[in-house]
Amino acid sequence: MLSDIQHETVIILDFGSQYTQLIARRVREAGVYCEILPFNTPIERIAARQPKGLILSGSPSSVYQQDAPRPDSKLLQAAKCPLLGICYGLQILAFDMGGEVAASPNREFGYARLKVLDETSRLFQGLPSEMDVWMSHGDQVTSVPPGFRVTALTDDALNAMEDVERGIFGVQFHPEVAHTPLGAQILRNFLFSICGCRGDWSPKAVIQEQKNRIREAVGETGRVVSGLSGGVDSTVAAALVHQAIGDRQTCIFVDNGLLREGEFESTLALLQQKMQLNVVGVCARDLFITGLKGISEPEEKRKLIGKVFIDVFDREAHRLGDVNFLVQGTLYPDVIESVSVRGPSAVIKSHHNVGGLPEKMKLKLIEPLRELFKDEVRLIGRELGVPEEILTRHPFPGPGLAVRIIGEVNEERVRLLQAADRILDEELRSANLYHSVWQAFPVLLPVSTVGVMGDERTYEKVVAIRAVTSVDGMTADWARLPHELLARVSSRIISEIRGVNRVVYDISSKPPSTIEWE
Questions:
Q1: Which of 87, 195, 197, 251 is catalytic?
Q2: Annotated catalytic, 87?
Q3: 176 is an active site residue
Q4: Is 489 helix (H, G, I), strand (E, B) or coil?
Q5: In 118-159, which residue ranges form alpha helices assigned H by DSSP?
Q6: Which of 53, 106, 328, 513 has its CA 20 to 30 A from that of 403?
Q7: What is the rounded CA–CA span in Å between residue 341 and residue 334?
Q8: Three state DSSP letters for 207-220
Q9: Among the residues of 431-482, which ranges form H helices?
Q10: C-alpha to C-alpha distance for 442 and 463, rounded to whole angstroms
Q11: CA distance 297 to 482
């Protein structure tokens, strides 16, 4: 881990909150490296990290339930650093130390006005006596444990407590969310004033550290193979490895026939000419399209695409001869989401990464981005000189357009969708709105509808437009694109693409809907 090298570390114990990753991002934005560990991580493992502070996350559970998630029983006695409990984290501290927690008579969800009772509290130093905060809880602390004092209230509940001598603090609200405008300062107070952090970490520091680590692992003669998708993660990972060992890395970029129109050719030129990467372009369109014949179930499509990719990648890697390592663009959310606080997570969609390759090919993994969030990867990419055309691209699914074609995939349906995708992209860029949305794409539906063109009846396909705003893709809202833009997109798709006679707009948020349709 990065903190093994030199960085001070804060540990976040995850009790299952939807906001846990946000806590980590806010801590890192303050210049402090942090790691997320499951709530029941043994105290010995926590202590080995020598943390400067511990943060206990929220949770959908109630502390008085029999199966409520609880930390290591020795945590409170053995922790050698300050603790901050957030929402459920506050409640578990209060409950386990002799306080009382009960269901709230007036549950707090959304904005509330916080009144600071003790302006000498280091957690609230430099902040006004009243401020807006964001609530999301159905339980509340009704009595604080011995030795604690209440430091802040709302009209409905006790909302902050602390025991300065033991270095234990808790807040009922969520300082990590944007809806708590001064929440970042509260977290900074905990990190710097209470924990004594220096703020010695930044994404840029990762570059040299990872280059050194890659050189040490690969040695002076080792060779590396990297699978490129043309997206941000795999490209930045390859750029980092390239700076470490140069042309001893060979990148394999596979054209599966499911990319955007012209994307294989343009991206290959960008990687080879502008980034000077050692890239092998492999055209395998027929293998993928033929393999998908007769398959309409989303998970079957994903698995088939993954299997064919592994076969193609394996074949090309063996042609290179003596290769010892495989580079993957694994990010930190991939790592922590694979460790559920309640055991194996429910699978919504299978992961498209090439996780089957190392076992099949006997390669050692290099994952230089596995400690980073997406926004941090983009920062590193800019430092490495990765072109903005790649860094600012909208996210694109690993299985490509196959999961944006509802039902069976064939060449004709890919052609229709590629054309619709190009039109939507052109119109968003023309309206200077491409970078205002997190993701925008068309979906080809498996239905036909009646239309009229040139006084003749048509019976053709339907295209749905999906555009969302988001910060990290974990939650998303449908984008309120101008009606004039949607009208141009619809008009062009119907008039320019033979085979489509209707366009609809998806106005679903995540949750409950996912961003991609499959």
A1: 87
A2: yes
A3: yes
A4: helix
A5: none
A6: 328
A7: 14
A8: HHHHHHHHHHHHCC
A9: none
A10: 6
A11: 34
Domains and CATH numbers, the chain: 2-194 (3.40.50.880), 203-391 (3.40.50.620), 410-505 (3.30.300.10)
- Catalytic-role residue among 108, 176, 263, 460: 176
SS3 22: helix
Q: What residues does 100 pair with on adjacent strands? A: 143
Return the closest-CA partner of residue 51 out of 117, 121, 114, 3.
3
Q: Would the CA dihedral through 475, 434, 496, 457 be positive or negative?
A: positive
For 472, the token pair is 């990290």
Rounded to 5°, the CA angle 45-49-53 comes to 110
DSSP 8-state code for residue 274 = I
The pTM score is 0.75
Phi–psi pair at 171, nearest 5 degrees: -130, 145
Distances (CA, A) of 12 to 80, 155, 331: 15, 29, 17
Q: Which two tokens stand for residue 317?
A: 């890697």
Strand pairing class (224-228; 249-255): parallel
Give start and end residues of each alpha helix (H) in 219-269: 232-245, 263-269
Within a 10 A sphere around the Cβ of 332, how many other Cβ atoms?
21
Q: CB–CB of 169/85 below 8 Å?
A: yes
Per residue of the chain (518 residues), give pLDDT as tens: 443 446 799 999 999 887 888 899 899 999 999 989 999 999 999 999 899 999 999 998 899 988 899 999 899 888 889 999 999 999 999 999 999 998 877 766 778 899 999 889 999 999 999 999 988 878 889 999 999 999 999 987 889 999 999 999 999 999 998 889 999 999 999 999 999 999 988 877 789 889 999 999 999 999 999 988 888 999 999 999 999 999 999 999 999 999 999 999 999 999 999 999 999 999 999 999 999 999 999 999 999 998 998 889 888 888 888 888 999 888 877 776 555 444 332 333 444 454 455 666 678 889 999 888 888 899 999 999 999 989 998 988 888 999 999 999 999 999 999 999 999 999 999 999 999 999 999 999 999 999 887 767 888 999 999 999 987 676 789 999 999 999 999 999 999 999 999 999 999 998 788 899 99
Mind giving me the DSSP string for 79-119?
--S-EEEETHHHHHHHHHTT-EEEEEEEEEEEEEEEEES-T
Active-site residue, selected from the candidate residues 162, 174, 251, 371: 174
- What is the C-alpha R_g of the chain? 26
332: Cβ–Cβ under 8 A, 6 or more apart, which residues? 24, 36, 369, 370, 371, 372, 373
For tokens 């027929």, the residue is 286
